[in-house]
Structures are given as structure tokens and as C-alpha cells.
Specification:
Layout lengths: L1 H41 L5 H9 L4 E5 L18 E6 L5 E5 L4 E4 L2 E2 L18 E5 L5 E12 L6 E5 L6 E13 L5 E3 L3 E3 L3 E8 L3 E7 L4 E12 L3
Antiparallel strand pairs: 1-2, 2-3, 3-4, 4-5, 6-7, 7-14, 8-13, 9-10, 9-14, 11-12, 12-13
């Protein structure tokens, strides 16, 4: 009986964690969606007041307040000088605190670490995988930067960046390529063509090769940065 109770308790905890993760992902998608919509129209990031207004018109939201644990209507509120708002999805029992940077600050009063999620319109790069938006099918868009050193013209046309990417990338959305020349230390920036005759670089993805560079290099580079955006097969 003890073992059976232990199994039930484990299943209960696992279900709770899954539900909390799902609710958190829903809230993060609402944040990202608001950022993308405002930036697309006005080329700026939304304020906390604007995000609160969006939540108040969302039929999935139970309440939006500037103080914790106040069950109220979703009538629009005046954020004023407040640096955070508190909100809750109708479908889940968790209260989210969202700060003025439009990041999740706490869940049910438990503070969470500031993440490296990039905001629409900001260039925030990391070698760690981060969520930077959502694709047209509402899947999260992930971004990751790879650092390559001593990229030589002797490397040939195909240079593997991440062979394992073929196991998790669903759609390859966007790429950027940055490099520093070895001698003159000149910054070059393009995702494809630098010099039609002697130097170009494209970032490619295939289900067989993973992520790789297709390019021809006239000279050796001290360092290259490859940034890619993609959706994942697991979402």
C-alpha cells in the first residue's frame, strides 16, 4: 500500500509540474505575441500598462492586478508607478508576476531567475538556446549563436556547425553570419554574399547534415559567429 501511495504521489507531482510548465509557456507566448504586435506596428516594445490592457481583453485571463492574490474582474487597471502586475489564467491555479521588462518575475510568489529570452526588436545573443518569439503556427522560435574559431579557406565549401541539429530542428527560420578578418580586423556582416568572385557564406540546414556553412573563403578568419533561429520538432 505504501508503494502504491508513493506511485500515486509521484504521478500527482509530475502532473502538477507539467501543468505549471504548460501555463508558464502560455503566459510567455502572450508576452511574446504582444511584443511582436507592438513592434510590428510601432517599432518599439510595449509598456507594462499596454501589456496589462492586452491581458484584460483576453478571455483566457481571470484577473489582472497590481497586488498579489486579489481575485478581481478583468476591467482595465491603471498600472501607474507599479513595476509589476499579477495575473492568472482561468484554466490554471497559478498566479504570475510580470515585471516592467515583460518577464516572468514569480509564480505563486516564488521568484524565478531572470532568463536570457530576447525581446522583439532587440539584438540579444547567447550561446545558450533562448526563445525569441513565435512562428506563424504559434510554435516558439528558438535562437542560438555558435562561435567558430580559425575558419580557414582550406576548410572547403562545407563546414559542419551542428550535426545534432537534424534531430531537433523543425523549421529553419533565419540565420546571421559575422566574422572578423585575421589581419585587418575588419568586421564583415552578411548571411550570404560578400564578394561574388572569391568570398561568400550561407548557413544551411538539412535533415541529413544538420547545420552547416556553404561557402568559399579567400582568407582565414579569427572568429566567426553563426546565429540561427528555428522551431523544434518537440513543440
Amino acid at each position: 500500500m505504501i508503494e502504491k501511495n508513493g506511485v500515486f504521489e509521484y504521478a500527482k507531482v509530475a502532473t502538477e509540474e507539467t501543468n505549471k510548465q504548460t501555463a508558464t509557456e502560455k503566459m510567455n507566448l502572450k508576452i511574446t505575441s504582444t511584443q511582436m504586435n507592438i513592434y510590428a506596428e510601432e517599432q518599439r516594445l510595449p509598456t507594462l500598462q499596454e501589456f496589462a490592457d492586452e491581458l484584460c481583453e483576453d478571455n483566457e485571463i481571470e484577473y489582472v492586478e497590481v497586488k498579489s492574490k486579489i481575485i478581481a474582474s478583468v476591467a482595465k487597471i491603471d498600472v501607474g508607478e507599479a513595476q509589476t502586475i499579477f495575473t492568472k489564467l482561468k484554466e490554471y491555479p497559478y498566479e504570475f508576476e510580470i515585471n516592467s521588462s515583460l518577464q516572468l518575475a514569480s509564480i505563486d510568489g516564488v521568484k524565478i531567475a531572470t532568463n536570457n529570452t530576447a525581446k522583439v526588436g532587440q539584438k540579444k545573443y547567447s550561446t545558450e538556446e533562448t526563445i525569441v518569439g513565435s512562428w506563424i503556427d504559434n510554435k516558439p522560435i528558438y535562437q542560438k549563436t555558435y562561435v567558430l574559431t580559425d575558419l580557414s579557406k582550406n576548410d572547403g565549401l562545407f563546414i559542419t556547425i551542428d550535426e545534432n541539429a537534424k534531430n531537433y530542428i523543425d523549421k529553419f527560420i533565419h540565420s546571421e553570419f559575422r566574422m572578423t578578418r585575421a589581419i585587418e580586423n575588419v568586421q564583415l556582416a552578411s548571411s550570404y554574399d560578400y564578394d561574388a568572385n572569391s568570398h561568400f557564406a550561407e548557413i544551411w540546414f538539412s535533415n541529413e547534415k544538420g547545420l552547416y556553412i556553404f561557402g568559399a573563403f579567400e582568407y582565414t578568419a579569427l572568429e566567426c559567429h553563426v546565429t540561427v533561429q528555428y522551431t523544434k520538432v518537440t513543440d
